[in-house]
């Protein structure tokens, strides 16, 4: 059932939101010298040459990366994101979450990247051996099971990116179940869950992310959702945007992400809209 290939979508609007949120989380962790541990449960190939047949099929990077090429940012998070990404974009490569992590992680930190697809795992290994140091481990296994097996980590400061393909409807429940299990074992984990916003054509999948978010919020930890839409939600729109649900977000991550995404929307065109909503907030 592993038919999803992220190269078809690399660099699209959803990747920009997801990778800004993930970089924001890592940046907050780096404010202290204390080491931390990162997990990427669905790591993909690591990086994506945009001249590949996959990327060229729909040229989805035109909806995210291309409008941001060569721009100057004012917000600190977008500025930092562009500083890391612009030189790689110039090589016609879109860096996925693993390459971003390899650039951001420090010598004292650790990371575990998981990927199940037999073709993607080879590219991921290559990406990490080319750009990572010894503290980044790659695991060819189911990401949600792997996350439960490897948490809580030592040290217990750290964060998780959960970025499944959601090809099957049950993946939404599997994500919320896993988040609840992880929080029971690792209460202070910062977790970023990416999800697509799908139009009614997707039938039950169109509403599955709402149930997933409500279940995650019921786990009792503070969390917000940040969403980027790039088209009107008409019946046939398909994926008209996406969101991230950030659990246990670091102080001011909401503001930093909002500043960055406000600027991003200005570059993505008139239909791009961003919103952030707290689903549960500690007083
Ligand atoms: C959306 S892509 C990941 C993109 C990546 N996180 C990034 O931002 O660059 C989802 C990946 O999950 C992989 N995958 C699917 N089912 C999986 C599972 N059960 N465990 C781990 N990886 C899985 C797919 O092969 C695909 O590469």
Task: Outline the structure in words.
The chain is of the alpha/beta class and 283 residues long. It has a single domain, classed as Rossmann fold, CATH 3.40.50. It contains 9 helices and 10 strands. The chain has helices at 13-29, 53-58, 76-89, 97-104, 118-131, 143-150, 170-185, 205-218, 253-268; strands at residues 37-40, 47-49, 93-95, 110-115, 136-140, 158-162, 190-198, 223-229, 239-247, 273-280. The chain has an 8-stranded mixed beta sheet, with helices on both faces. Helix 1 runs antiparallel to helix 9 (253-268) and helix 3 (76-89) packs across helix 9. It is globular. It starts with 12 loop residues before the first helix and ends with a strand. The model has no long low-confidence stretch (mean pLDDT 96). Bound molecules: S-adenosylmethionine. Residues 2, 4, 6, 18, 42-44, 96-97, 114-117, 120, 142-143, 163-165 line the site of S-adenosylmethionine. The site of S-adenosylmethionine has 19 residues, from strand 4.
Oligomer: single chain
Instruction: Estimate percent helicity.
Output: 25-40%
Using the CA coordinates, give the radius of gyration.
Answer: 17 Å
- Largest sheet, if any? 8 strands, mixed
Number of helices, where a helix is a run of at least 4 consecutive DSSP H or I residues: 9
* Strand/helix succession: HEEHHEHEHEHEHEHEEHE
Mean pLDDT level: 96
Tally of strands:
10
Low-confidence stretches: none
Shape: globular
CATH topology: Rossmann fold
Q: What percentage of amino acids are in beta strands?
A: 15-25%
Lateral strand order in the biggest sheet:
5-4-1-6-7-9-8-10
Bound molecules: S-adenosylmethionine
Structural class designation:
alpha/beta
CATH superfamily grouping: Vaccinia Virus protein VP39
N-to-C terminal Cα separation, in Å? 44 Å
CATH architecture: 3-Layer(aba) Sandwich
Question: How many domains would you count in the coordinates?
Answer: 1
User: So what's the CATH class?
Assistant: Alpha Beta
């Amino acid at each position: 059932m592993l038919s999803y290939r992220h190269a078809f979508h690399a660099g699209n609007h959803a990747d920009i939101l997801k990778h800004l949120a993930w970089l924001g989380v890592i940046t907050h962790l780096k404010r202290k010298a204390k080491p931390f541990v990162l997990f990427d449960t669905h790591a993909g190939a690591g990086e994506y040459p945009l001249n590949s047949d996959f990327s060229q099929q729909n040229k989805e990077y035109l909806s995210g990366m291309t409008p941001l090429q060569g721009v100057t940012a004012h917000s600190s998070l977008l500025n930092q994101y562009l500083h890391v990404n612009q030189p790689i974009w110039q090589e016609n490569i879109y860096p996925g979450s693993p390459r971003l992590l390899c650039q951001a992680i420090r010598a004292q930190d650790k990371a575990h990247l998981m990927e199940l697809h037999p073709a993607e795992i080879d590219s991921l290994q290559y990406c990490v051996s080319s750009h990572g140091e010894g503290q980044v481990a790659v695991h060819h296994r189911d990401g949600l099971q792997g996350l439960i097996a490897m948490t809580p980590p030592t040290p217990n400061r750290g964060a998780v990116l959960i970025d499944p393909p959601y090809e099957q409807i049950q993946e939404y429940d599997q994500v919320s179940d896993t988040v609840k299990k992880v929080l029971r074992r690792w209460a202070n984990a910062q977790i970023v869950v990416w999800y697509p916003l799908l139009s009614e054509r997707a039938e039950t999948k169109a509403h599955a992310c709402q149930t997933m978010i409500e279940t995650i919020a019921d786990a009792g930890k503070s969390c917000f959702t940040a969403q980027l839409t790039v088209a009107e939600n008409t019946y046939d729109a398909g994926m008209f945007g996406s969101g991230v649900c950030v659990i246990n977000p670091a102080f001011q991550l909401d503001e930093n992400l909002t500043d960055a995404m406000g600027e991003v929307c200005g570059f993505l065109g008139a239909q791009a809209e961003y919103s952030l909503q707290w689903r549960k907030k500690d007083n």
